[in-house]
Structure formats: structure tokens, C-alpha cells
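Q: What structure does this chain adopt?
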Amino acid sequence: QVQLVESGGGLVQPGGSLRLSCAASGFTFSSSTMGWYRQAPGKQRELVATITSGGSTNYADSMKGRFTISRDNAKNMVYLQMNSLKPEDTAVYYCTGNYRDWGQGTQVTVSS
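A:
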């Protein structure tokens, strides 16, 4: 069955960096669009970034220039490098495959 397992979340100070990872299995990863979404307390889940099978990327405006999504088709992995983190980036970050399958999420907390 489809599995998406996120890792790499944690507590970081404002201005710091984190790298999230998502291990995918149970579907044809190399031909899938992968993405990251996030959900802060009391807010709706929102797009962070996506990457197509061909490597084209898309970012939410507030993440452009700070976050980078990438993928390794040989390892069935998708990554989210997050730099210059802000307190408002605090949320649970979810990995998605084809906007249909979802991981359990990983908590990112940005606080001093």
C-alpha cells in the first residue's frame, strides 16, 4: 500500500534551517507529482511546494526564496530544505503524492 513517511521536523530558532524528508513507497514515485503542505493550529492546510516528475517546481509566494523542494527518484525520496525560518512557519508539514496520498506529518516549531 501507499506509504509516505515524513521526518526531519523539530524545534529551531528564527533564522535557522531544517531539512524535511519524505520516504515514499507503494506507487510509481518517478512518475508522480510530489509536494509539501502545512497546517498551522487553527488554520487550513496550505500549499508549500510541489515538484513534478520532470522536476518542475512550484512554491507558495511566502516560501519563495527560502524553501527548496527536491527529489531523488533513485531513493523514492522528496525533500524540503527550509532556510530563514520564521515563527509563522510553525506548522505540521505533510508530504503528498499526487495530491491524493498523505503522510502523517512532521511538526516544525520556530521559536526562540
